[in-house]
Specification:
Homotetramer. This protein is of the alpha+beta class and about 325 residues long. It contains eight helices and 17 strands.
């Protein structure tokens, strides 16, 4: 495959959007630039004094590590300078950041929701972490941005993607016409197309869930986990259990080889733990574009009505047939109630 950089690919695909004037292309490139800068720091985190508690706490009440803050700053800076983004909702900020007050961004057409460094508690353990982004079109450019413009359904995303800082650094994204993966070539400092037209297998042999929460799961989830563990050669069971505890890493594996990832509601997180706007919606968009499925248990993730920036949801996501099996267990449970 001849070398094709992210920039070349974005421009080439711009023709997929007849009315595109290049704004989304520039926005995606801005995100790619931030990812390369963050990658540089993530890769040397063990060396720099960037490890350790930053002292502050983010709105999740979690100790904010310096790398979280650094990653957030890089995305905000790249999006502000790029001028295509008028508003950012970030895991690291309680409220959104209205960039439209900056002259360069006042006509920005896009709203970006980001988890700048997901799984950052794993940084000190040298486990893969990731950045997740979700892009919406601003609905009204003739008035100040309102929260209802930010709280759009996941199905209204114009683009979404993630960066995984792992054994190699990859950027995987979709603009609604399939999923493409780019691997960072450090020798030239470019993301290069390495995984064109990614498709998630309809079936997999891996299930991914924090089984430490088993006793707190709803009954239909407990029943499904037992189903995964039962011997049945026709359906390749028992499945293999794999849980990294970094959503981007667990989802990337699921996208590549198939499988299912579950973070159900528990007593500790009655709405589920993972965030709708900047974790579940973008990853659900990607997985659906790759031929998979993503539900909360009761409904399609992309059809959940957002009500606030840091809203949580339960999620079951991955290979289409595996998610449908969980839905059967849910329906069966509903009948029993
Ligand atoms: P638990 C990381 O903190 C994160 O937000 C996701 O990346 C990950 O999937 C999940 O939380 C892990 O949560 O409760 O299993 O440690």
């Amino acid at each position: 495959m001849s070398l094709k950089t992210l920039g070349q690919f974005i421009i080439e695909k711009q023709n997929d959007f007849p009315y595109a004037k290049g704004e989304l292309s520039r926005l995606l490139r801005d995100i790619g630039i931030a990812a390369k800068i963050i990658n540089r720091e993530v890769n040397k985190a063990g060396l720099a004094d960037i490890l350790g508690e930053y002292g502050a706490e983010n709105i999740q009440g979690e100790a904010q590590k310096k790398l979280d803050v650094y990653a957030d700053e890089q995305f905000i800076e790249a999006l502000t300078k790029g001028g295509e983004c008028c508003y950012v909702a970030s895991e690291e900020h309680e409220g959104g950041i209205d960039l439209s007050r900056h002259s360069v961004s006042k006509n920005g057409k896009y709203i970006v929701c980001i988890d700048p460094l997901d799984g950052s508690s794993n940084i000190d353990l040298n486990v893969s972490v990731g950045s997740i982004f979700s892009i919406y079109r601003r609905k009204h450019t003739d008035r100040p941005i309102t929260m209802d413009e930010v709280l759009q359904y996941g199905s209204e995303q114009v683009a979404a993607g993630y960066v995984i800082y792992g054994s190699s650094t990859m950027l995987v994204y979709s603009t609604g016409k399939g999923v493409n993966g780019f691997t960072l070539d450090p020798s030239i400092g470019e993301f290069c197309l390495s995984h064109p037209e990614m498709q998630i297998p309809l079936d997999g042999k891996t299930y991914s869930v924090n089984e430490g929460n088993y006793l707190k799961f709803p009954q239909y989830i407990k029943d499904y986990i037992k189903y995964c563990q039962m011997e049945d050669s026709e359906t390749n069971r028992p499945y293999t259990s794999r849980y990294i505890g970094s959503m981007v890493a667990d989802l990337h594996r699921t996208l590549i080889i198939g499988g299912i990832f579950l973070y159900p509601e528990t007593q500790s997180y009655p709405q589920g733990k993972l965030r709708l706007l900047y974790e579940c919606n973008p990853l659900a968009f990607i997985i659906e574009q790759a031929g998979g499925k993503a539900v909360s248990g009761v409904e399609r993730i992309l059809e959940i009505k957002p009500t606030h920036l840091h809203q949580r949801t339960s999620i079951v996501i991955g290979s289409k047939h595996m998610v449908e099996k969980v839905e059967e267990f849910y329906a069966g449970h509903e009948e029993q109630v």
